[in-house]
Amino acid sequence: MNFNLSWNVIGGGGGSFISPSYSIGGTVGQIDGLSTSTSYKLQSGFWAISAAIPDKIGVFRPSVHTFYLKNGTTTTSINWGISTDLPVTVDWNGDGRTDVGVFRNSTHTFYLKNGTTTSINWGVSTDLPVTGDWNGDGRTEVGVFRPSTHMFYLKNGTTTTSVNWGISTDLPVTGKW
Asked: CA-to-CA distance for 133 and 137, rounded, in angstroms?
């Protein structure tokens, strides 16, 4: 069965698009011409567009245990954690928006703020926090880097992946290389 589908983007998403309208043509069950910057999903009988939201900058000020997040001319402040915590930020709940969290070395616990509070006890007090989508499901998980043994311990649900990488003076980074 062939079809043609057109729609316009309605404001309210907080972003801007180069083109305000989109069109898909093809056979039911197939979508032709997917771009790398926009993904299309058929959900509950309508087409939903999930456009990439560019990353922004921010800081965590330990003295007042507050995140200051810059979005254009607007600054959002989020009081979270205690002064000795290490900040972590990513999309904890898979909604496409970045959430804040902290890693508390003294209890080796992540405290993730995503509408509710999630705490995950992981690692030891000398570990450094890392975050990433370890299994490619679009949701971020936690992990730690242990400088003394240069080991990464990546938590993925009930599974742990251990990776020996680097030297003891290295600082960990994660990403989609």
From this structure: 7
130-to-44, 58, 78, 79, 140 alpha-carbon distances in Å: 36, 17, 21, 21, 10
| Residue 140 contacts residue 133 (beta carbons within 8 Å) | yes
Strand, coil or helix: 66:
strand
- DSSP 8-state assignment for residue 134: T
| pLDDT tens profile 73-116 | 999 999 999 999 999 998 887 787 889 999 999 999 999 998 78
Structure-token pair, residue 53: 């939201």
- Distance CA(124)–CA(127), nearest Å, equals 6
The tokens for 54 are 């560019």
